């Protein structure tokens, strides 16, 4: 298992029921778990399409009602920067607030965390058989990165202190696209004309695949 340091709020709980969620720009996965230290048991789960709802609060309330759930705590990984337990989901247009969910559900312990930071913490639960090697390189200890293209481009990092990895959130996907070759410059010009300023988030993503396809079809006549 990967040696990862947990923050105070993410210490493994004992004999607790937790409602965990992953909120992206397209869909949200919610699951109810029983947690005892590092042993985690799924009780119920459901996937929601965000466009069918108006807010995070509505989705959590729907799940709690259908599954008669009264968890000890709620934690949701969100596709955005979390500040003061609030976040803006850029590619969805939602402003989410942990305190709003707290009031709506009556659950005191409600926390939002960046979704890729949550994935970084989750690496601690993976074993060798859970991984697939794409290309074998030289073995060494050092910092790691998580890159997750979806509706946008999620990124997180883990820095190595010599003994443990420490996850941290980033919004690296929103940095500007960096053209290097002639075709990259052509794509940049096309995006400026049709999509706006090109960031990595808008190119290495689902919508980016569509935009690149349109570029190749309309500009390059492929």
Description:
The protein is an alpha+beta fold and 222 residues long. It contains 6 helices and 11 strands. The mean pLDDT is 89. It has a 5-stranded mixed sheet. It has a 3-stranded antiparallel sheet with strand order 5-6-7. The longest helix is centred in the C-terminal third of the chain and has 13 residues, at 182-194. The chain is globular and about 60 Å long. Strand 6 (86-89) and strand 7 form a beta hairpin.
Number of helices: 6
Largest sheet: 5 strands, mixed
N-to-C CA distance:
46 Å
Number of strands: 11
The strand order across the widest sheet is 3-2-1-4-8
Question: Which key phrases capture this entry?
Answer:
11 strands; 32% strand; 6 helices; globular; three-stranded antiparallel sheet; alpha+beta
Blueprint (SSEs and pairs):
Elements: E1 16-23, E2 27-36, E3 39-49, H1 56-66, E4 73-78, E5 82-83, E6 86-89, E7 94-97, H2 98-105, E8 109-114, H3 115-122, E9 144-149, E10 153-160, E11 165-169, H4 182-194, H5 200-203, H6 206-218
Parallel strand pairs: 1-4, 4-8
Antiparallel strand pairs: 1-2, 2-3, 5-6, 6-7, 9-10, 10-11
Helix pairs in contact: 1-2
